[in-house]
Amino acid sequence: MGFFDKLFGKKEKQVLDQGLEKTKESFLTRISKAVAGKSTIDDEVLDNLEEALVSSDVGIETTVALIDRIGARVKKDKYLGTADLNRIMQEEMAGILVDAPSTLAADFSLQGMPKPYVLLVVGVNGVGKTTTIGKLAHQFKLAGKSVLLGAADTFRAAAVDQLTIWSDRVGVPIVKQAMGSDPASVAFDTVQSGIARGVDIIIIDTAGRLHNKAHLMEELSKIKRVIKKQLPEAPHEVLLVLDGSTGQNALEQARHFTAATEVTGLAITKLDGTAKGGVVLAISHQMQIPVRYIGVGEKMEDLLVFEKQAFVGSLFSLNG
Question: d(Cα 104, Cα 7) in Å, to the nearest integer?
Answer without folding.
Answer: 20
